[in-house]
Amino acid sequence: MSVSRYTYLGPEGTFTEAALRTLPEAATRELVPMVSVPAALDAVRSGSAAAALVPIENSVEGGVTATLDELATGEPLMIYREVLLPIAFALLVRPGTALADVKTVTGHPVAQPQVRNWLAAHLPDAQWESAASNADGARLVQEGRYDAAFAGEFAAARYGLEPLVSEIHDAENAVTRFVLVGRPARPAAWTGADKTSVVIWLGDDHPGALLELLQEYAARGVNMMRIESRPTGQGMGRYCFSVDCEGHINDRRVASVLMGLKRICPKVRFLGSYPRAGVDPSMVGPLRPGTSDDEFVAAAEWVARCQDGRAA
Amino acid sequence: MSVSRYTYLGPEGTFTEAALRTLPEAATRELVPMVSVPAALDAVRSGSAAAALVPIENSVEGGVTATLDELATGEPLMIYREVLLPIAFALLVRPGTALADVKTVTGHPVAQPQVRNWLAAHLPDAQWESAASNADGARLVQEGRYDAAFAGEFAAARYGLEPLVSEIHDAENAVTRFVLVGRPARPAAWTGADKTSVVIWLGDDHPGALLELLQEYAARGVNMMRIESRPTGQGMGRYCFSVDCEGHINDRRVASVLMGLKRICPKVRFLGSYPRAGVDPSMVGPLRPGTSDDEFVAAAEWVARCQDGRAA
Amino acid sequence: MSVSRYTYLGPEGTFTEAALRTLPEAATRELVPMVSVPAALDAVRSGSAAAALVPIENSVEGGVTATLDELATGEPLMIYREVLLPIAFALLVRPGTALADVKTVTGHPVAQPQVRNWLAAHLPDAQWESAASNADGARLVQEGRYDAAFAGEFAAARYGLEPLVSEIHDAENAVTRFVLVGRPARPAAWTGADKTSVVIWLGDDHPGALLELLQEYAARGVNMMRIESRPTGQGMGRYCFSVDCEGHINDRRVASVLMGLKRICPKVRFLGSYPRAGVDPSMVGPLRPGTSDDEFVAAAEWVARCQDGRAA
Amino acid sequence: MSVSRYTYLGPEGTFTEAALRTLPEAATRELVPMVSVPAALDAVRSGSAAAALVPIENSVEGGVTATLDELATGEPLMIYREVLLPIAFALLVRPGTALADVKTVTGHPVAQPQVRNWLAAHLPDAQWESAASNADGARLVQEGRYDAAFAGEFAAARYGLEPLVSEIHDAENAVTRFVLVGRPARPAAWTGADKTSVVIWLGDDHPGALLELLQEYAARGVNMMRIESRPTGQGMGRYCFSVDCEGHINDRRVASVLMGLKRICPKVRFLGSYPRAGVDPSMVGPLRPGTSDDEFVAAAEWVARCQDGRAA
């Protein structure tokens, strides 16, 4: 195993690489682009990389299903960090190209809906064709196959292009969330502004199962931040749920939720507890009464005293 | 403290005494009738008796509020056993009295609704007056103040009366439940067919609090057997709840419910875990999946492994 | 039927009579004391009285089971008004009696726990014996059978007694709630500060039934004000629930709750909607968003439009 | 508007076209392939097509986000039918190509994970490159750009290719669900085996909102069949939910759920009620007690009688 190697969803010049480079440790790691999310994660599973950075959610396009499904199946992996990256596209062209010259544009299929309005307004007649990635689109412009590509502005230099227009995004505040994934080990340290991710499978024949699952969270005042259903591949109508909640597995309220899930669901996969990106612990709101660690400990001690005949 | 003395709600000849005598240990105890439930229980609190037998619920008349309120307030007490006694009244008269001679009848106020239909059918013109207890009514018949008293048939001999009619009860299967109450100590041993009693106070300003309380039980598949609201004395609309559920505090699902209650409610009083009267452990139905001790232990171990980085 | 006759739980001089006399209409009705709650209500059922005033709840002693059970069974009745009466006892004696002369005291059994502390402090050696009612206790003092009776101060004159001590009550703010009961008809007019009472029977074999019942209320933001379990007489462990909630059956959120209860419970008895005593409509807090009549109407209209293919 | 024109997600030769041709009415319509789901649906919105068939869910890959998002936003549309199509791929090649000759393969990105295992086993060295659609991949094979394409076997003839291998699918029972979408009008007729689709937005600052939403369904015994979160585009962590449930808006239990959702959620979009594909009404299980139309009607009538003073 090479502890110094991190893989990421390539090719070079994608937003994933940009996100990875925001991590201080990236400066001292060998960063290896991989052709796909499964490839990036399999490198971790096989031990040829210490960790992989992959996108997991986009505020416009939703969950990245390849990542969700890879984390839910196969050899277990664990999330250690998340990175948020604002997404803005630049229209990259070969030097000298003017907007009026752009007849064909390319980019990742996920980019298209994020620039659709801009295209309709500024290049209504340009023809869109999808590329395997934003960076790949840039390469195809370099090769002359298209006139322009939507990509991160940081990709321009790498492919000998220049940004004709910058900061293009139909939705305000488009953000992509990336996760740094490694092999299972002790979760990231508690910070007080943490997030815990799990995948939960429901029993087949139980209509109220999803409700019961949510009640395990609600009963302990643990806020759910994201819930996403994914098919299990067992047939239409069979789902598992990818769920993020506030708090760390070392918070007793979260540990208690996980125990409840483990008991009532046929399968639960723990994906890690890790700091919430961009949230300072001092900004986290107060807990619901009765859900602090102290209150959990006090309640357990009270029951123990009752069992021993020493209840006050 | 006299370990050999048991008090009970007197006077002699009441159903409570009959219930107490069904306990094998009663044969070797000094049995002391007390004038009221509070008096019987205060003898336990003060140490002058080891335990007290008092009625807590009647299948026709409902909860015995004096007992419920005494258990909820004052120095804590604990329930160690319950006794179920079928309630049937005899019409006790002085020897030689015929039904046609009965112009006045007496009995405990609680007895009246249980014999009302019988009275209307067989003694429509007799005048009812309440006595302090069924046994007291028998005494008043002995003294000649009334012609007949409703009481347990076992009270006849004590007061020189005879049962003119037996097995009187408007409701089929009328039963009274009594509890043997002592000072707080280690709960009664686990049998597999147990019951756990608590008193729960809700926060003042929380409309959904009762719902949350019930969900603590429901979430662990713990069946509630009885719930009774009692005023707290803090004003109209302020209640506490006396709740019995299936299971023993040493069952992890029950311990988990109690911890939940302790956390979310301002006050919980544990009244004991004790065998369910008349229920053989082999008759107890299966647990809901996910609520056995083994499953609770497995879930806790799984979370511990996740915390340690050793999750499967 | 005599529309001019109201019955009440007698005898004369009880708190019930005092409560009844707070109603303006009492001045123009014939007020007839009855020997018991069933007798007072049966007079209404038979048409010999237009309405009956009976106690239903005491802030110290809890529900009046005779009233709860009479309303739950037999020919249906309906509540049209409620009356709240602060309860304070006077110690009534024959003129000339001093406190030091009081060796025996009497009163209704329900009075005893409300004066117990006072007795312990001021008459520790006096012997208590229960009377059929507080007024009856006063009569027995008049007859010389006891030295003093706890009763409402208003009862003194009627029995030729005088109040030796006034305003006796262990609990601050002890209040009894009375209800004016008539035959079923259109409920009392909506005021904006109303209460709705029902009795609900649960299915036999359904552990979560009580939870579902409460959720019908919670889902519409309808605050439950009182819930009381009563045995159905079908055997130990079989209960029905007497429930009061805020709001009027003509409020759509309340009507919706009642429809839900009617569907999921084997039996529901509507006991009436009537003004909340002592609550001005202007004091009633805001409704939970989504539960106003306007929002109910708007939602129904939206669904109708969807059904007709005209949804916005 | 041309009532005779249906659009679909093209190009010709895709599974969508195959699904569309399973509809009897397709034989008498002009079927027009469109370049994207938005284009297919916009043709309906503009009136240039009467309806559009688009994929909405795949049992392996999950929801088709373009379709989910188009239905959730923009001018309202309505689902009138669903079509289920088993998905099996053929490996299409130019006549004469042998398996050993295949060095490069193409197909839609969604096809790749469904044939990944097959590729690893049979063409471990072949290089995959994505095409804009399965049909487009076939066209590129025809043009000689790739050696083979994964597509529906029905696409072979159209592009002068032949199926070298048939029935390729990693997952057993892979199925894609398509929906026939038109402008809003009266929903499809009730059949007894129906499905109702909605999009629900939750209030921003309400952690328990998803739980309340699910309880609206659960309280009426309405089974949820699919729930999918989608970003609203308002920023990370803001979701709406696409939900399918059993039953028709003309079923009172479903109408009641929709009214509840409309009241408690800031926005609900009704997407239609339509027959469940492949489910015969005689196969549909019994309703939960208390949720039939008759029971809803009876409950409403009972409340109306209570309001009128005529309750039994």
From TrEMBL, chains A, B, C, D:
GO molecular function terms noted in the UniProt entry: prephenate dehydratase activity
InterPro entries, A to Z: ACT-like_dom_sf, ACT_dom, Chor_mutase/pphenate_deHydtase, Preph_deHydtase, Preph_deHydtase_CS
Transmembrane segment boundaries: none
Pathway the protein contributes to: Amino-acid biosynthesis; L-phenylalanine biosynthesis; phenylpyruvate from prephenate: step 1/1
Residue stretches making up the Prephenate dehydratase domain: 5-183
Catalytic activity, EC: 4.2.1.51
Keywords: Amino-acid biosynthesis, Aromatic amino acid biosynthesis, Lyase, Phenylalanine biosynthesis
Main enzyme class: lyase
The ACT domain, residue ranges: 198-273
Catalytically driven reaction(s): prephenate + H(+) = 3-phenylpyruvate + CO2 + H2O
Protein's recorded name: Prephenate dehydratase
Species per Swiss-Prot/TrEMBL record: Streptomyces pactum
Recorded name of the encoding gene: pheA
